[in-house]
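Notes from the 1:1 (GR / supervisor)

We went over the backlog. Supervisor wanted to see one worked example end to end before approving the batch request, so GR pasted a single chain during the call. The sequence is below; no edits were made to it. Supervisor asked that the structure be written out right there so they could see what the output format looks like.
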Amino acid sequence: MTLQEKQNKLNEIYKPFFNNVKDKVGDDIGQYGNPLLIDLAKTNNINTDVMIFGQETNTWYNGIKNIDELIEIYSKFLNDNLRSNTPFWQCFRKWLGDENGVYVWNNLSKMDYNSNGNRSILGCSNKKILEEILKGSAEIIKKEIEIIEPKIIIFLSGPSYDFIIEDYLGGKKKDNLEITEIAEENQLCEFELKGFENIKSFRTYHPRYLNTQGDLKNKIVEFLRAKIYK
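Structure output shown during the call:
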């Protein structure tokens, strides 16, 4: 499929997701961040072989009601942030990226939610809403992977988010002798995702923390780059 054909398929699954999840978690401006939706057709020089996951949104674009506008805004957000010097985008662009293209950007939790002033999904006190967000996110992520067909997935989410990979995406940690020689499991691990066993999947720290780890950071980045560019 061409990128536009893949994007058309993404748009088909995004529209019910966009409406259904918001119906369940509420539609109050400021209560949630609009879900992160992927754009393949307008993102400059996209490389669909690699999908990189962050943790979750952070109050982003919660006033947007039109899905086509939201997809375009997230595409612009990605293109603009590639020039950012924050650790996540440094990792996305420089540590793991190269001149061959921009990787597909995703989040383990498609939305954040304002739970008594705490935006992180880890601090959501409303278990019903938490379940709706994570279940809905996982369902759409699986469909995104099916459509986009990445060859490698990297979760820059840290160990605190492993329960999402395991409980919602069906991930199981794999023994990897290469990894045990350079890092502990909480620092770097390999996952096998149910239904996507042919895709290499790895999880390491969020770049904000990884950036403080000196030589360990260099070893992990070198390991991941070797998997991306093998």
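Supervisor's comment: The beta strands are 46-56, 102-109, 152-156, 171-174, 188-193, 200-204.
Batch request approved.
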